[in-house]
TrEMBL record:
It comes from Cinchona calisaya. This is Anaphase-promoting complex subunit 4-like WD40 domain-containing protein. WD repeats lie at residues 254-296, 391-433. Keywords: Phosphoprotein, Repeat, WD repeat. Residues 65-74 have a biased composition (Low complexity). PANTHER family: PERIODIC TRYPTOPHAN PROTEIN 1 (PTHR14091), PERIODIC TRYPTOPHAN PROTEIN 1 HOMOLOG (PTHR14091:SF0). Pfam families: ANAPC4_WD40, WD40.
Length: 492
């Protein structure tokens, strides 16, 4: 399945990603050490299993010895007794494997018998010329052009989890091509992603993705490095696991989450700041430059599913929980109780309106989507501000929502009912503009591209990345076609 996806801004990726250096000896020893720690106590019958493996190994050794003896006997048997093996014996004798490594002084390396394999110069060798062509073609395939769109998908397949970096090229020419540029194997089932450009290494900006998973650690991977085996940074996580008898103890890093990380949000104004939501009922604010947690918020009483920073006031953070509430807090004042909205079901996702600083939407497990104006809120927790609208958007859980950055009041929703819908929220009276079943299975993630605003990426249970060019829908092109020229003029 594709559990999450995101667009990387155009031009943020290196044209040719670097290849990871192999880990140092000390790093390998640390990985092995951690692996041994995790393995200890996982199964009380480990020793018994190892003994069984030793017995099996001895048995296999005996079988191999018997097979070798039988083969030797066949070779020494009288000719004609076993005609089906005589040809094999002859072939082995002809190869003379006992003297395989001994060179024959009579053979000249560049003798007349090998004339066709030797060329006076590399330029005359067609094989090397072809190889050069192949290398240039491979380099061309690996080059990410400034006009290429890049999409990162979190995939889980056959108990293996990894990030796929997709390239979408040829959009401007109208003849698009999409392929996986490279992937990154990750150790745990991914649940959420957040792109960030905070320079964790040298330079002014980076190209990183933060990954929240079934584990309490948040891993940050460099998208400009291929074949990487370790993240660039890890926020929180487990130090060690121990088991004594039936009791199991876990030791966490300082200020770490203690359960799955369900939601992530990067602050585009304060580029070193990342917010996380967890099944441990907590919201945390991280400084990714130092790898430290700067604040922990415990204003929810159940799993926190989603977090989002306000586009206009970047210190304001929104969080949604399974406790049927959405809370808005100023991250600068952690002691403040914040503003709270009650909702009818578990929160699946939420998003601030990029065109109106006072408005946000929240999608729910029961298929509903509600919109709220924060100006109607109060810090009095006994008050219960009403939503600006409540929409029965889908028949099942609405797992993901995405605002269009170009078109005001255009919202995409994706649901477990396998459909994606586009909504016009004008005047707080939602109307469905278009609906589609993208054949992606149950929809877990939808996202409009900022660079190609009418292009919607969709990921779901079938594990395929699907793209919906929404302008291909007549209703969409009729209603919003005027924004195409506006977008082109903005780009030029």
């Amino acid at each position: 399945m594709l559990s999450a996806l995101l667009w990387v801004p155009k031009g943020a990726s290196k044209p040719v990603p670097a290849t990871a250096e192999p880990p140092a000896k000390e790093e390998i020893e640390e990985i092995l050490k951690n692996g041994l720690v995790d393995a200890q106590g996982e199964d009380e019958n480990d020793n018994a299993k190892e003994e069984g493996m030793d017995l099996d190994g001895s048995k296999r050794d005996d079988e191999i010895a018997q097979a070798l003896a039988a083969a030797d006997a066949l070779g020494k048997g009288s000719r004609g007794t076993h005609p089906e093996t005589d040809s094999i014996t002859d072939a082995l004798k002809e190869l003379d494997m006992d003297n395989y490594d001994e060179e024959d002084d009579g053979i000249e390396l560049f003798g007349e018998g090998l004339q066709t394999l030797y060329y006076p110069s590399n330029e005359m060798d067609p094989y090397l010329n072809d190889k050069d062509d192949d290398d240039s073609e491979e380099l061309e395939d690996m080059t990410i052009k400034p006009e290429d769109a890049v999409i990162v998908c979190a995939r889980n397949e056959d108990d293996v989890s990894y990030l796929e970096v997709w390239i979408l090229e040829g959009l401007e020419e109208g003849d698009s091509n999409m392929y996986v540029h490279h992937d990154i194997v990750i150790p745990a089932f991914p649940l959420c992603l957040a792109w960030l450009d905070c320079p964790l290494k040298e330079g002014e900006k980076g190209n990183f993705v933060a990954v929240g998973s079934m584990e309490p650690a948040i891993e940050i991977w460099d998208l400009d490095i291929m074949d990487e085996v370790q993240p660039s940074a890890v926020l929180g996580g487990i130090i060690e696991k121990k088991r004594k008898g039936k009791k199991k103890s876990v030791k966490y890093k300082d200020d770490s989450h203690t359960d799955s990380v369900l939601g992530l949000a990067w602050n585009k104004e304060y580029r070193n700041v990342l917010a996380s939501a967890s099944a441990d009922n907590m919201v945390k604010i991280w400084d990714v430059a130092t790898g430290k947690c700067s604040d922990t918020m415990e204003h929810h009483s159940d799993k926190v599913q989603a977090v989002a920073w306000n586009h206009f006031v970047p210190q304001v953070l929104l969080s949604g929980s399974f406790d049927h509430s959405v809370v808005m807090k100023d991250a600068r004042i952690s002691s403040h109780t914040g503003f709270k909205w009650s909702i009818a079901a578990d929160v699946e996702s939420l998003a601030w309106d990029p065109h109106a600083e006072h408005f946000f939407v929240v999608s729910l497990e029961n298929g509903m989507v509600s919109g709220f104006d924060i100006r109607a809120s109060s810090s009095n927790l006994s008050s219960d501000p009403k939503p600006s609208f409540t929409l029965h958007a889908h028949d099942k859980a609405v797992c993901s929502v995405s605002y269009n950055r170009l078109v005001p009041n255009l919202l995409a929703t994706g649901s477990m009912d396998k459909t994606v819908k586009l909504w016009d929220l004008s005047n707080k009276q939602p109307s469905c503009v278009a609906s589609k079943n993208p054949k992606a299975g149950a929809i877990f993630s939808v996202s409009f591209s900022d660079d190609c605003p009418f292009l919607l990426a969709v990921g779901g249970s079938k594990g395929r990345l699907e793209l919906w060019e929404t302008l291909s829908d007549v209703a969409v092109s009729t209603k919003y076609g005027k924004y195409i020229k506006q977008n082109r003029s903005a780009q030029t």
